[in-house]
Amino acid sequence: MHINTEKNQEERMNKSTFMLMREDEREARKQLIIRAARNLVDKRARLDIGMREIAAEAGISPGAIYRYFPSRDDLLVEAFIQDLVEILQHFDLDKKYTLTTMEDFAQYVIEHLIDHEDTFQMMSYVMISGKMSPQLVEKFNNVMRNFLAQFHPVLREAASDESVKLLAQAFFAALAGIVMTYRNFPGRKKEEVRRHMRRLAHLIAILFKHAAAEAAKAVKDFVPPE
Question: Is 118 exposed, middle or buried (0-12, 13-18, 19+ CB in 10 A)?
């Protein structure tokens, strides 16, 4: 009886180890596909890429890619979610800015969106199309909440805790809007456009710094008309 029990435990452990290995292998394949998609977007500066091209970039068959992502939309959303996670991880590692003031925080976000073509393209697509499965909606919302929470400490210098969540949403929307409006502005040199976007980001930071508290009070009881 004792021998059988030990044998059963060993079989369960082996089965568990095998399942973990399969999960690790699946996750590794997913990451390979996501990297391939991001590389293609970064090279082309646009999103007119198909699943066949992504599969070729990843070195897998076109049919195999659908085992991991049911559609291109799901793949692009997952890639953007991963990028947000990476930005979160880098907040504490980037030494160029202290990220303790609104001004520095605004410059950090703007520069990242200027310098990372894949992030900008995927953000634009996700924000405008809004296409994602219910499972991805929950995952996206969780990551987005964590991302916006990074804005809270710098916004607390200008407003109360109860209004900081709304202000974080407005602050990021303003910065994202600057990049989406001016990043590929025609008829201007890239460095000229970059300087202009950084000036606008600094302006937004100053406005939030000095007017956030009053603005938060003003909209506290605001109810949009039907």
Answer: buried
Going by C-beta distance under 8 Å and a sequence separation of 6 or more, which residues neighbour residue 98? 104
Output the CA angle 134-151-175, nearest 5 degrees. Answer: 80
Radius of gyration of the chain (CA): 22
Tell me, what DSSP letter sits at residue 61?
Answer: -
Model confidence over 52-91: pLDDT tens digits? 999 999 898 888 899 998 888 888 888 888 888 887 777 6
- Provide the CB-side half-sphere exposure for 16 (13 A, CA): 6
Distances 171 to 152, 154, 196, 201 between C-alpha atoms, Å: 10, 11, 18, 10
Work out the number of other CB atoms within 10 angstroms of the CB of residue 15: 10
Judge contact between 178 and 197, C-beta under 8 A: yes
The structural domains of the chain, ordered by start, are 1-69 (1.10.10.60), 71-217 (1.10.357)
Which residues touch 107 (CB under 8 Å, ≥6 apart)? 97, 198, 201, 202
List of residues 6+ apart from 39 with CB closer than 8 A = 57, 118
CA distance 36 to 160: 43
pLDDT at 18: 47
